[in-house]
Each structure stands twice: as structure tokens, then as C-alpha cells.
Amino acid sequence: MLERNPAVEAAIEGELRLLDPEVRRSADLVAALLHPDFYEFGASGRIWDRDSIVALLAAGTEDGSRTTTSRVKGVQLASDLVHLTFDTDNNGRRAHRSSLWRLFGDDWLLYFHQGTPYSPGEAGAYVHETS
Asked: Domain for residue 37, yes or no?
């Protein structure tokens, strides 16, 4: 379910900023969007913490191409927690993504992120099985 409220909008805005190549190249801009306890299960299988992801992005190891985002859905789970799901495509590298954004002071900051690679044929409808 897609909710549109200020918390969800702030999380979506933050997520899109983190995908902007100019933001990704700036340690200060990235760090400003990450919660102090941030961690990520990357699409590569690696586990990242806040310091390591800021350092990686600031090192400019990415090619600088723009990532296409689709199927963005958001829901506010609590007064201080938003869950986003979306898909990304960066030069054919596709991933299903899930993020948790937490209110920290007056700012919505990325607390947790996970990327799971997928192939184009696997991008269909979400499947929900019951027992």
C-alpha cells in the first residue's frame, strides 16, 4: 500500500537524493542522510556500516551514471519509522530494494537498507503465498 504523508514523502525524497550521483560523491551529503546506526545488506552480499558506505561513495568508485527507480511504495509503520520498497536499474544491474527511515531529531535518516539483485524476467508481480 502506498501512503502519501509527510513522513513517507520525506523518506522518498531522501532515498532519491541518495541515488543522485552528485550527492553520492559527497561524504558530507551522504553522511547527512544516514542514521548514526545505519547498516546495509548490499546487493553484492556485503554488509556495510555507516562509515564504510560513506567512504566507499566518497572514493568515487562508481561510474556516476544515473539510477532509474521504479515501483516506489512507502508506508509509515510508526510515528518515527517509514518503510520503503522500490526497484532500481543502473546500466542493467537491477535490484529490489527495501529501506527503513527513522526520525532522528527533526530529520528522517536512512537506518537500514537492503538490495537484492534480480533478472528482468523476475520483476513481475509480488507473490504472496499462504499455507
From this structure: yes
